[in-house]
């Protein structure tokens, strides 16, 4: 493609419509004001339109398309809040029937369309991907040419350029023009403008770096999205759950068996109902309100050299009270307080009683750890009690066989076999009984001995979530860059003032990428202290025609 | 302390009324500008000074309540909504000196009053904080968010001002209907406040025994006369009347009843206004704002949104994510409140991009400002009270 040479001598890329150097319009436009967006530079998307790649490029670099993508994302996102997402329906509910049962036909449709998992659906991902691609392409399309145009711009601009700025005025035969220009220079410096001079013309510029704000924030956004995308790789993050009983320790998943957590104590603290301050609110709540969930925990680490499986030495690393809002963290892992179970059965204490009057069984007392029962309990006076079977969570299954649901002692049943001193455990069968809470049944005929439960011990169990998320640093960096760009582009503005002396004719023009009000104030400051006039806002002249009935002056500083 | 803080909020409310009146004087008085131009400007100055005083009073409420309850008072509907009103007051105090537009004052003050009064309709007692809320991030996240929303709300006020200034109310059109609808919404909110306040002062309470969603017997209290009754409801209190209609158990009948009352009373109030004015309410306001320069107001609303957007993003998304990571183990969980914050963010991002192209300045942009504020209010009220999620602590 041919380059375009401007009369000022600068060679512009094909497609430029305002000369990068002097600003002369290279392509005639009908409107009275120059289109200053991106300084009138040639953008790839405006220049190449032929090949397939060009078409894709042009599609994604269009702001219009970008806005559509944002709007589509916005609308689809809102759909997902119509009914709860699958992860928020009550635990244990089956999604296939839940939505229809709760929300009728609409709920059924919601489920069938996959809206119950909207945010992880392929088409939602596709929209986000489109957003990402659009961000990359639109930024590339603009940032390089914009950078070049701002760098090559000359102080002396073509008059056609100045005339078509929104703020413009010219004064023929301006008096004390030289004096005014010297004064203007120092006044603008005072206002922190950077001044460049050429042939007695002035270009005062300020806040140019804010022009990079949008690109910085888009880069931040892209990094953020990349970070988010990495979550599709399971290695990038860990999400596990562990239950730890009081006084016990469990291995922390994901640490290769290196770290363990001991639960020293779990407690729940409630707000004091007598507390005057909270009384009205507690009454309204109609029940106790929890103040704290806390696990007093100790982090343990396998000593170097200890082999897996053998009796290992664990060293204490640190103590921490894990609470909601205060996880235990180490080496990128975090342990969160998320769940608990109060008063889980932990051990039963039994004694043995006999039908016969004169047997002395007072010595026989034993405790069965429900999480780790022993097989055999032997006593000095020769008695021996074996555990034949243990069902921590007892049920009768479909085949009418006794079995256990899991290893959690929610409904423990034990089958004991009792051997008096004279019996030979190898040869004979002892008396069998099935024992549980409020259950004590002989299994092989009448029993002479009865196992009696005398005590029950319970513990609290804490439920912790284990997290490690390697994408967090990327996402944080992305968010941080995004914020910087946002602030840079929003709280600073690019302003330019051109003052030119064209043989005694004073030509004045101004441009701001936003906050025209601020630019006008700066002009006002100039005109108050010199004979330089306020420029005319040429866009207001046209808007006035549309809004008839405005009879006040338009000086924005007046109101 | 609690009493002091409550009194300061009342004081702020009345100061905002005074400020609105002063701004009104500053504008209507300008007809006599030729005779005593200087004096007219003063009313605006007094209005602004009063607005600063009102903000100071509301800030005192905030600080004293903070001391009294022991945590930043932004953790239930009353506290949060009041904070939104305070933030809007602050945003005005900051933005007014830039543009010195008394019309903006005239429009902002009533909105602040409305928000503060609306806030006071929620239970105001001191609440014990549940564990999930016990974090400094509560303070940081919510205060930043509410500040951002307050500034964004200035965009709404300026947008409304713009619309009333430029729309032709002589012909009926969709635009006129739109503006009238916004005004109606404000009137209905005022009606709700008036009703709740009136019946509250009279200690009105009607109780019903009814059958709830689970099929159990339960009780429900009404603080406005029951037009809408609960499922198989039976009046068990002295006050009350028999409802006109009964709704199924899955609907919260007393809340619906309040909504119905507000809609009806709003209609009545709005109808009266129309009857008295004999033209659209916006059309009746228009002559007072005819001296407003539309372009200035347009720039003002854009500016407010450009300033508010980064703050809202920081508080409502970034701080929110940091806190969610600490409290809920994940920085993002697609909870309805999170999604609606994202939607608000995307909406304003779309707005900013639309401002890049010609064609979207002025009127269209003003409509967008109104919609944006509607989203903020939707997220505050509807998502909190109706779409229950992790965030509903009201
Ligand atoms: C959620 C996604 C996005 C966010 C949060 C975002 C944010 C922003 C912000 C804050 C600005 C500055 C606006 C101003 O200063 O008034 C901006 C400018 C811009 N954005 Fe985006 N943007 C997003 C997506 C996109 C997409 C998809 C495109 C692609 C077409 C795009 C194209 C642009 C362009 C061309 C500018 C103007 C740059 C300039 O003035 O030099 N943005 N964006």
UniProtKB/TrEMBL annotation, chain A:
<dbReference type="InterPro" id="IPR007816">
    <property type="entry name" value="ResB-like_domain"/>
</dbReference>
<feature type="transmembrane region" description="Helical">
    <location>
        <begin position="215"/>
        <end position="233"/>
    </location>
</feature>
<keyword id="KW-1133">Transmembrane helix</keyword>
<feature type="region of interest" description="Disordered">
    <location>
        <begin position="530"/>
        <end position="559"/>
    </location>
</feature>
<feature type="transmembrane region" description="Helical">
    <location>
        <begin position="472"/>
        <end position="492"/>
    </location>
</feature>
<dbReference type="GO" id="GO:0016020">
    <property type="term" value="C:membrane"/>
</dbReference>
<keyword id="KW-0472">Membrane</keyword>
<dbReference type="InterPro" id="IPR023494">
    <property type="entry name" value="Cyt_c_bgen_Ccs1/CcsB/ResB"/>
</dbReference>
<dbReference type="GO" id="GO:0017004">
    <property type="term" value="P:cytochrome complex assembly"/>
</dbReference>
<feature type="domain" description="ResB-like">
    <location>
        <begin position="63"/>
        <end position="524"/>
    </location>
</feature>
<keyword id="KW-0201">Cytochrome c-type biogenesis</keyword>
<feature type="transmembrane region" description="Helical">
    <location>
        <begin position="65"/>
        <end position="83"/>
    </location>
</feature>
<keyword id="KW-0812">Transmembrane</keyword>
<protein>
    <submittedName>
        <fullName>Cytochrome c biogenesis protein</fullName>
    </submittedName>
</protein>
<feature type="transmembrane region" description="Helical">
    <location>
        <begin position="122"/>
        <end position="144"/>
    </location>
</feature>
<dbReference type="Pfam" id="PF05140">
    <property type="entry name" value="ResB"/>
</dbReference>
<feature type="compositionally biased region" description="Acidic residues">
    <location>
        <begin position="538"/>
        <end position="549"/>
    </location>
</feature>
From TrEMBL, chain B:
<feature type="transmembrane region" description="Helical">
    <location>
        <begin position="45"/>
        <end position="68"/>
    </location>
</feature>
<dbReference type="InterPro" id="IPR045062">
    <property type="entry name" value="Cyt_c_biogenesis_CcsA/CcmC"/>
</dbReference>
<feature type="transmembrane region" description="Helical">
    <location>
        <begin position="179"/>
        <end position="202"/>
    </location>
</feature>
<feature type="transmembrane region" description="Helical">
    <location>
        <begin position="366"/>
        <end position="390"/>
    </location>
</feature>
<feature type="transmembrane region" description="Helical">
    <location>
        <begin position="104"/>
        <end position="122"/>
    </location>
</feature>
<keyword id="KW-0812">Transmembrane</keyword>
<feature type="transmembrane region" description="Helical">
    <location>
        <begin position="259"/>
        <end position="277"/>
    </location>
</feature>
<dbReference type="Pfam" id="PF01578">
    <property type="entry name" value="Cytochrom_C_asm"/>
</dbReference>
<dbReference type="GO" id="GO:0017004">
    <property type="term" value="P:cytochrome complex assembly"/>
</dbReference>
<feature type="domain" description="Cytochrome c assembly protein">
    <location>
        <begin position="269"/>
        <end position="391"/>
    </location>
</feature>
<feature type="transmembrane region" description="Helical">
    <location>
        <begin position="142"/>
        <end position="167"/>
    </location>
</feature>
<dbReference type="InterPro" id="IPR002541">
    <property type="entry name" value="Cyt_c_assembly"/>
</dbReference>
<feature type="transmembrane region" description="Helical">
    <location>
        <begin position="338"/>
        <end position="354"/>
    </location>
</feature>
<keyword id="KW-0201">Cytochrome c-type biogenesis</keyword>
<keyword id="KW-0472">Membrane</keyword>
<dbReference type="GO" id="GO:0005886">
    <property type="term" value="C:plasma membrane"/>
</dbReference>
<feature type="domain" description="Cytochrome c assembly protein">
    <location>
        <begin position="75"/>
        <end position="189"/>
    </location>
</feature>
<keyword id="KW-1133">Transmembrane helix</keyword>
<protein>
    <submittedName>
        <fullName>Cytochrome c-type biogenesis protein CcsB</fullName>
    </submittedName>
</protein>
<feature type="transmembrane region" description="Helical">
    <location>
        <begin position="80"/>
        <end position="99"/>
    </location>
</feature>
<dbReference type="InterPro" id="IPR017562">
    <property type="entry name" value="Cyt_c_biogenesis_CcsA"/>
</dbReference>
<dbReference type="GO" id="GO:0020037">
    <property type="term" value="F:heme binding"/>
</dbReference>
């Amino acid at each position: 493609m041919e380059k375009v040479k401007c009369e000022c001598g600068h060679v512009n890329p094909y497609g430029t419509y305002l000369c990068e150097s002097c600003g002369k319009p290279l392509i005639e436009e009908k409107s009275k004001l120059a289109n200053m967006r991106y300084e009138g530079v040639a953008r790839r998307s405006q220049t190449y339109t032929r090949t397939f790649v060009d078409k894709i490029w042009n599609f994604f670099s269009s702001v219009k398309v970008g806005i559509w993508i944002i709007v589509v994302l916005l609308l689809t996102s809102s759909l997902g809040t119509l009914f709860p997402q699958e992860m928020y329906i009550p635990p244990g509910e089956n999604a296939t029937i839940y939505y229809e049962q709760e929300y009728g036909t609409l709920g059924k449709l919601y489920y069938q369309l996959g809206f119950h998992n909207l945010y992880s659906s392929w088409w939602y991902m596709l929209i986000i991907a489109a957003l990402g691609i659009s961000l990359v392409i639109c930024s590339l399309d603009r940032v390089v040419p914009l950078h070049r145009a701002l760098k090559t711009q000359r102080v002396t601009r073509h008059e056609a350029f100045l005339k078509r700025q929104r703020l413009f005025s010219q004064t023929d035969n301006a008096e004390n023009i030289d004096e005014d220009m010297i004064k203007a220079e120092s006044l603008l410096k005072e206002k922190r403008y950077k001044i460049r001079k050429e042939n007695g013309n002035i270009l005062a510029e300020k806040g140019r770096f804010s022009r990079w704000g949008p690109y910085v924030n888009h880069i931040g956004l892209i990094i953020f999205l990349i970070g988010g995308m990495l979550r599709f790789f399971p290695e990038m993050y860990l999400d596990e759950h562990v239950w730890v009983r009081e006084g016990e320790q469990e291995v922390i998943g994901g640490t290769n068996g290196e770290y363990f957590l001991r639960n020293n104590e779990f407690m729940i603290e409630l707000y004091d109902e007598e507390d005057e301050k909270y009384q009205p609110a507690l009454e309204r709540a109609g029940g106790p309100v929890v103040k704290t969930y806390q696990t007093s925990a100790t982090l343990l680490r396998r000593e170097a050299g200890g082999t897996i499986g053998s009796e290992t030495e664990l060293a204490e690393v640190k103590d921490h009270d894990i609470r909601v809002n205060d996880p235990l963290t180490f080496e990128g892992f975090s342990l969160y307080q998320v769940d608990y179970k109060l008063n889980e059965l932990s051990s039963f204490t039994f004694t043995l009683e006999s039908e016969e009057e004169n047997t002395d069984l007072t010595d026989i007392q034993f405790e069965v750890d429900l999480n780790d029962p022993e097989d055999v309990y032997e006593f000095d006076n020769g008695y021996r009690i074996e555990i034949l079977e243990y069902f921590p969570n007892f049920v009768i299954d479909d085949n009418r066989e006794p079995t256990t649901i899991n290893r959690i002692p929610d409904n423990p049943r034990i089958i004991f076999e009792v051997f008096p001193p004279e019996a030979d455990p190898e040869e004979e069968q002892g008396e069998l009984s099935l024992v549980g809470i409020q259950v004590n049944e002989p299994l092989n005929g009448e029993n002479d001995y009865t196992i009696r439960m005398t005590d029950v011990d319970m513990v609290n169990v804490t439920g912790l979530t284990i997290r490690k998320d390697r994408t967090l640093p990327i996402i944080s960096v992305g968010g941080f860059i995004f914020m910087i760009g946002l602030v840079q582009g929003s709280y600073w503005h690019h302003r330019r003032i051109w003052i030119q002396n064209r043989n005694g004719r004073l030509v004045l023009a101004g441009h701001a990428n936003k906050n025209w009000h601020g630019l006008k104030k700066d002009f006002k400051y100039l005109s108050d202290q010199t004979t330089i006039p306020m420029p005319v806002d040429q866009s207001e002249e046209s808007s006035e025609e549309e809004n008839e009935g405005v009879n006040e002056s338009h000086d924005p500083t007046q109101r | 302390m609690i009493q002091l803080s409550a009194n300061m909020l009342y004081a702020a409310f009345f100061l905002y009324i005074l400020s609105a009146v002063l701004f009104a004087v500053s504008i209507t008085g300008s007809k006599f500008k030729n005779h005593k131009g200087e004096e007219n400007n003063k009313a605006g100055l007094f209005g602004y000074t009063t607005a600063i005083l009102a903000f100071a009073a509301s800030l005192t409420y905030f600080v004293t309540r903070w001391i009294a309850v022991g945590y930043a008072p932004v953790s239930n509907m009353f506290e949060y909504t009041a904070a939104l009103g305070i933030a809007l007051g602050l945003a005005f105090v900051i933005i007014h000196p830039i543009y010195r537009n008394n019309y903006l004052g005239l429009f902002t003050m009533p909105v602040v009053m409305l928000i503060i009064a609306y806030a006071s309709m929620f239970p105001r007692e001191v609440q014990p904080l549940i564990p999930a809320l016990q974090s400094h991030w509560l303070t940081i996240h919510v205060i930043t968010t509410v500040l951002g929303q307050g500034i964004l709300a200035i965009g709404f006020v300026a947008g409304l001002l713009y619309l009333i200034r430029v729309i032709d109310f002589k012909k009926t059109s969709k635009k006129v209907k739109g503006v009238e609808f916004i005004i109606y919404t404000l009137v209905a909110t005022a009606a709700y406040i008036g009703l709740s306040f009136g019946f509250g002062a009279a200690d009105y309470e009607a109780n019903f025994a009814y059958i709830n969603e689970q099929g159990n017997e339960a009780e429900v209290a009404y603080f406005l006369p029951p037009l809408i009754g609960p499922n198989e409801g039976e009046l068990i209190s002295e006050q009350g009347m028999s409802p006109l209609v009964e709704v199924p158990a899955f609907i919260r009948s007393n809340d619906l009843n309040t909504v119905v009352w507000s809609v009806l009373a709003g209609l009545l109030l709005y109808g009266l206004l129309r009857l008295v004015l004999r033209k659209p309410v916006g059309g009746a306001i228009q002559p007072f704002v005819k001296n407003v320069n539309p372009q200035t107001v347009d720039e003002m609303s854009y500016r407010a949104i450009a300033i508010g957007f980064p703050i809202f993003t920081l508080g409502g998304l970034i701080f929110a994510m940091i806190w969610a990571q600490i409290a809920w183990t994940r920085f993002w969980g697609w909870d309805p409140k999170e999604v609606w914050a994202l939607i608000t963010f995307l909406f304003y991002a779309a707005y900013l991009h639309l401002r890049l192209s010609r064609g979207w300045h002025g009127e269209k942009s003003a409509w967008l400002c109104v919609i944006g504020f509607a989203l903020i209010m939707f997220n505050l009220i509807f998502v909190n009270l109706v779409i229950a999620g992790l965030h509903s602590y009201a």
